[in-house]
């Protein structure tokens, strides 16, 4: 029977293992599907925390990412329990990586959150104690076991000591409750054992009483051997007792087997059943003994009557003997019939057992078949999961490549167009042409560039141009100006585009002065080396214009308007090494710079235009009075001027 139980238990375990594996795989798929919905709710946080626990053994890095994401979402939606569980998982993962100080931070945050939830009666003490037993105590003991901890580990030990001091009362209280519960269960078990021993003692006493009765019956049977009649009667009684003993023995065996089976199910019930069965058995035995005693008394009375009446006549003896023989025959027939019925019942039970064995065998075959099917399904699911993981990794790689290429294209686009215009093109596919009230335009070109281009090697010429224009780009960026384009040796930039501002007229003059100073320095270096040098003309004008991107191929940001044409005339009418500005620009910057009036120039459709040279910043507005770098007073005046222009944007008209 024990071997059969072990065999059935093994079959159940073997049948459940594939189901557990398949169930776990299905759980992972369901959890990932929940996370993929990205609803940012408690369900997603719980799914991420469960995934982190499942993947902590195989993929700790991915598990940490799951927990970190769960922490962020839980914090955003104020889901305290999910936040605490995520911190606990991240702390446990850091312990595995021997990053105890980080683990201490996460565990401290988890404990504080769980303690607040417990005090608010939102979680049970068992959950808090489970966290203490699973995470805090093992980590603290691991750190304490280190013989020579490093500095970070010593800091972690101090933090865990503090946490242990806070968590100790909760753990001690729970341990006390558990200990009391164990003590109570031990006391109940002791009482049951005492009851079982008492019942065993009662059964033993009844067995001894039965043995005593049997001995008495055997003694009385030996006394009845005096006559043939007594012998015959005794043999019949022994036969009846033997049948009753066999019946009692079979019943005892059946009860014993039933009691053993019931003992595996429930001890307390078994004890009560044993007691009831034994009491029934004792009552049956007493009834049988009482019947035997009555029969013995009847036999003795008959014997006395036979002895008294023996002299009367043998006819009576013969008649009585015949009657007794008939009665014995009937009793034997009845006993045989009872035995036949018992055999039939035993045969029926044997058939039932055989049928049950056949059913069990079929069920075992079905279980084996289901187990094979589950194993096949498990392999298919694992294979599908591997394919999904491979596809996800491929998608992530492709997304990363697309992101890098997008960053490169954005960088190239920003290098060609202003940021605002580039963003507008990406969003709408085109950029609007916009009108601007106040924009300052700067033009430069190099003296005698055409002649120099005829004498210099092309590569050297381009390198020199690149050097100069790179210097100009740096100056434009420094003064918040936007480079528009270069055509040959000409360079064009604007201030106040694409984002309007009210200081562009000063910014562009400062940039022009810095360009001429830088070109003077290059000239001095070239002269010292005996190499040919370039000199620059520079013109500036301020006013209205329109700007934008036109066409659909090879986008370029450009500006148009009379302001641009006038700025070009300022450059062509200027002198080498000087900053030539229009009268409009002069009216805006005259309070900041030392300017020199140089006359008028005729402009198409506009007539004569005033021109001024800007020599430097006014001495009182520059650092150390050198006229190069603006001081704080310059900046304060510029701020006031900016407010004035902002309140009257038509000043440049």
What does this structure look like?
By secondary structure, the protein is of the alpha+beta class. Helices cover 73% and strands 11% of the residues. It is built from 17 helices and 8 strands. The protein has helices spanning 2-36, 42-55, 60-77, 80-96, 100-119, 125-144, 151-223, 228-265, 267-309, 314-416, 419-428, 449-455, 458-478, 504-529, 562-572, 583-589, 632-647; strands at residues 434-446, 482-487, 490-495, 536-549, 557-560, 579-582, 593-603, 607-617. Strands 1, 2, 3, 4, 5, 6, 7 and 8 form an 8-stranded mixed beta sheet that branches. The radius of gyration is 55 Å and the shape is rod-shaped.
Our estimate of the beta-strand percent is: 5-15%
Secondary-structure-based class equals: alpha+beta
Taking all Cα atoms into account, the compactness measure Rg is 55 Å
Shape by Cα distribution: rod-shaped
Q: List segments where confidence is low: pLDDT < 50 over at least 5 consecutive residues.
A: 11-24
Total strands: the figure is: 8
Spell the H/E element sequence.
HHHHHHHHHHHEHHEEHEEHEHEEH
Count of individual helical segments: 17
User: Kindly, what is the distance between the CA atoms of the first and last residues, rounded to a whole number of angstroms?
Assistant: 111 Å
In round numbers, the mean pLDDT is 80
């Amino acid at each position: 029977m024990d071997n059969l139980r072990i065999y059935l238990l093994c079959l159940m375990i073997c049948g459940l293992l594939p189901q557990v594996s398949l169930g776990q795989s299905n759980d992972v798929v369901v959890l990932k599907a929940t996370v993929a919905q990205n609803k940012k709710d408690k369900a997603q946080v719980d799914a991420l925390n469960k995934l982190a626990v499942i993947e902590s053994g195989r993929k700790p890095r991915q598990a940490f990412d799951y927990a970190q994401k769960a922490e962020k979402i839980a914090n955003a939606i104020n889901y305290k329990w999910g936040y605490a569980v995520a911190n606990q998982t991240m702390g446990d993962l850091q312990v595995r990586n021997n990053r105890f100080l980080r683990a201490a931070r996460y565990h401290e945050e988890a404990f504080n959150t769980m303690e607040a939830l417990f005090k608010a009666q939102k979680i049970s003490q068992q959950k808090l104690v489970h966290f203490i037993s699973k995470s805090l105590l093992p980590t603290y003991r691991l750190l304490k076991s280190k013989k020579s901890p490093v500095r970070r580990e010593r800091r972690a030990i101090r933090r865990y000591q503090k946490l242990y001091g806070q968590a100790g009362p909760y753990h001690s209280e729970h341990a006390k409750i558990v200990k009391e519960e164990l003590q109570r269960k031990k006391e109940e078990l002791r009482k049951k054992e005492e009851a079982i021993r008492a019942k065993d003692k009662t059964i033993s006493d009844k067995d001894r009483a039965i043995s005593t009765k049997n001995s008495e019956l055997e003694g009385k049977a030996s006394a009845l051997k005096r006559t043939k009649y007594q012998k015959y009667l005794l043999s019949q009684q022994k036969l009846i007792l033997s049948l009753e003993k066999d019946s009692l023995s079979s019943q005892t065996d059946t009860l014993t087997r039933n009691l053993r089976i019931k003992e595996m199910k429930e001890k307390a019930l078994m004890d009560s059943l044993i007691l009831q069965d034994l009491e029934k058995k004792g009552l049956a035995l007493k009834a049988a003994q009482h019947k035997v005693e009555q029969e013995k008394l009847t036999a003795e009375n008959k014997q006395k009557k036979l002895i008294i009446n023996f002299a009367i006549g043998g006819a009576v003896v013969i008649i009585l003997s015949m009657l007794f023989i008939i009665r014995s025959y009937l009793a034997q027939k009845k006993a045989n019939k009872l035995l036949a019925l018992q055999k039939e019942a035993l045969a029926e039970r044997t058939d039932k057992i055989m049928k049950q064995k056949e059913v069990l065998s079929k069920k075992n075959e079905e279980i084996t078949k289901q187990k094979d099917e589950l194993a096949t399904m498990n392999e298919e699911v694992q294979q599908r999961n591997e394919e999904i993981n491979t596809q996800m990794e491929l998608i992530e790689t492709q997304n990363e490549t697309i992101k890098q290429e997008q960053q490169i294209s954005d960088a190239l686009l920003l290098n060609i167009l202003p940021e605002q215009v580039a963003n507008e093109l990406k969003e709408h596919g085109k950029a609007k042409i916009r009108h601007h009230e106040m924009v300052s335009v700067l033009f430069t070109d190099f003296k005698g560039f055409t002649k120099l281009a005829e004498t210099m090697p092309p590569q050297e010429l381009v390198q020199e141009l690149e050097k100069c224009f790179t210097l100009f780009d740096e100056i434009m960026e420094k003064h918040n100006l936007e480079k528009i384009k270069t055509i040959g040796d000409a360079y064009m930039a604007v201030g106040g585009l694409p984002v309007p501002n009210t200081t562009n007229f000063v910014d562009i003059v400062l940039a022009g002065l810095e360009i001429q100073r830088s070109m003077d320095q290059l000239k001095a270096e070239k002269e010292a080396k005996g190499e040919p040098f370039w000199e620059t003309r520079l013109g500036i004008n301020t006013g209205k214009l329109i700007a934008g991107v036109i066409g659909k191929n090879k986008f370029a940001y450009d500006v148009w308007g009379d302001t641009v044409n006038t700025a070009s005339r300022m450059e062509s009418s200027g002198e080498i090494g000087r900053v030539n500005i229009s009268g409009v620009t002069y009216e805006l910057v005259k309070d900041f710079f030392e300017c020199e009036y140089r006359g008028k120039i005729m402009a198409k459709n506009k007539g004569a235009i005033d021109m001024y040279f800007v020599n430097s910043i006014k001495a009182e507005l520059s650092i150390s009075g050198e006229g190069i770098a603006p001081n704080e007073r310059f900046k304060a005046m510029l701020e006031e001027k900016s407010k004035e222009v902002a309140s009257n944007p038509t000043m440049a008209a």
